[in-house]
Design brief:
This protein has ten helices and no strands. The chain is mainly α. It is globular, with a radius of gyration of 18 Å.
Length: 190
């Protein structure tokens, strides 16, 4: 559980710099240069994510279960998970979805975390999924209170929305059928 906690603290801390210390972030980007800062940030993000995943895997070996979800709840989760991949893709493929949702990646993280909290009742699950849910809500609140950074992207188009939905649903089906078992070791729908 220790590695999971360290991974969560590092991951959320790193991904909360723009929320709690935007001035420091800007000064570091200016001092190091934008691309070196982004590369350094990305390396630490990947390392913290790897530690978080490894720690979660270790915690799953000796779980402390708080609750058992009824089997039928998996079908509710399947429905809640439907928009997750399309929303993640809509965050990088600008279109009406991104305009309407403002921050579709955060909405996807909230849906993913909530869905997984419903069916996973271990302390380690509560830490991981509950942590992501709380973090995504806090980041969304902070984004309402500050000006977003300009991020260059392609102009919004209907084609991007179609791509985001179509590819997102394909990834969803691949996760339900094969990837969730291959990567996580859990069959999402029995």
């Amino acid at each position: 559980m220790t590695y999971l906690l360290i991974g969560l603290v590092l991951f959320f801390g790193l991904h909360s710099i723009s929320v709690v210390a935007p001035g420091w972030r800007d000064s570091m980007a200016e001092r190091l240069g934008l691309w070196p800062w982004r590369i350094l940030h990305s390396l630490f993000a990947v390392a913290s994510l790897a530690l978080l995943i490894w720690g979660y895997g270790q915690a799953r070996q000796d779980p402390f279960i708080l609750y058992q979800a009824p089997v039928w709840l998996r079908h509710v989760v399947a429905v809640l998970m439907l928009p997750v991949f399309p929303l993640l893709l809509a965050s990088v493929l600008p279109g009406r979805i991104k305009i309407a949702m403002k921050f579709p990646a955060l909405v996807a993280i909230k849906a993913w975390a909530l869905a997984h909290l419903l069916v996973n009742g271990g302390v380690h699950d509560l830490l991981l999924f509950g942590g992501f849910l709380v973090w995504s809500v806090a980041v969304r609140i902070s984004l309402k209170r500050r000006a977003p950074l300009p991020i260059p992207s392609a102009p919004p188009s209907k084609r991007n929305d179609i791509l985001a939905v179509a590819l997102g649903l394909l990834v969803y089906v691949a996760f339900v059928k094969w990837l969730h078992v291959a990567l996580i070791g859990v069959v999402p729908l029995p």
